[in-house]
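Changelog-adjacent note: as of this version, every example in the card shows the full chain rather than a window. The one below runs 186 residues end to end.
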Amino acid sequence: MFLDIGVGILASLFVAHLYGLGLSLAFILGGIFFSLLMDADFVIHFAKGGTYNTGYRHRNLLHYPLLYIPIGMVVIGFFNHSWAILFAICSFFHFVHDSIGVGWDVQWLYPFDNRHFTLFYRYTSPIKEKLPRQFLYIWKHEDIDALAKRYGDEHWIRNMYFKLHPYALVEYAVFIVSLVVLYFYI
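Full-length structure tokens:
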């Protein structure tokens, strides 16, 4: 989440600079909103009785980049081109973020292919079997529940964000850098 917020801030600065726009609070908040928007399906997952243990299943509504980004760009672009670019950048980097480390992937090629893709690193429970390290993990959609049960961490929020963990350090660093850059940009 902190990484997404930081990326939303940095993307807002970049797009404002690219288009020669005066930076506004609304544009910065828009970047943050766009960076977090696709995780609205996480709220829906919990409203339907989901738990943190099954939180990876929330990616079954808005986490389809080949559909989400073009549709969002067309809808937003109808009103404002720079906001559509901001939406695309923030959304793309959220999907990249979701493809590295946390969760069980992004279905990058959906609706053409329902396999799940994770890049570089896949967090696993500190007390369970570890996955072999590799550049790209590709999983069949029907295998995700079994993978989460075998390797998942029911305390992933606590273990990744409230302990010294490389993933959390990167998230916090990007967030802090975005605030520093924003301070000097204004």
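Structural remarks: Residues 2-185 form one domain.
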